[in-house]
Amino acid sequence: MKIEIWSDVMCPFCYIGKRRFEDALQQSGHQEQIEIEWKSFQLNPDMKTDLSTNINQYLADAKGWTLDHAAQLNDHVTQMAAEVGLTYNFDRAVVANSFNAHRFTHLAKKHDLGDAAEETLFKAYFTEGQNIDDNDTLIKLGVAIGLNAAEIKQVLESDTYTDEVKYDIAQAQQLGIRGVPFFVMNNKYGVSGAQAVPVFLETIEKSFTEWNQGNRKPSLTIIEGESCSPDGDCG
User: Fold this and answer.
1) Which numeric CATH code is attached to 2-215?
2) How does pLDDT run across 112-168, given as a tens digit for each residue?
3) Which end of the chain is more exposed for a tag (fewer CB within 10 A), N or C?
4) Where are the domains of the chain?
């Protein structure tokens, strides 16, 4: 069964949602029979990478909030992340456009490393304060998960996977997806947001049951007659 996940590396709820979904998937026991595909989504495609400011100040300026209000909201999300074992350091988060990170993820998907790419990007952005729009940073992250440095460099210095990222975003729009994370299970059920583990688990189980029934080999109605058995008896 296939599960598609639309996400943006800059989305704090996407990392939290990833952990809750993984918990539910493990509880389901269906990991070996489920294919997960990560899809690109940009929450702020016009964001300019800016190393001179921090994410709290950026949000305050962009949303018209006070700096204290932006910090309070991020503190709340930080507490939510801690509940699922994640460490968020918003004071270190780099204001960076995520388009190249999405192209990097598509390269990783080509090598069956899509999930590893998402994990390392989330950690780099939210925990380590790395610039996910920097080529050298992406090359380092890619090599750490098993990608080839020269191939990463070639991709980042060209427009490779640009169309793939844009296609994912257009597909999300066609499906009516307005925010992330968004999980599509068995091309039938959509789960929006970093839902609680039981919500993910219930939807995984329901989707998997329907998928399994649809793919079950039909049973045969057997009309008995003379035949030979494996032990050589014929009659």
Assistant:
1) 3.40.30.10
2) 999 999 999 999 999 999 999 999 999 999 999 999 999 999 999 999 999 999 999
3) C
4) 2-215
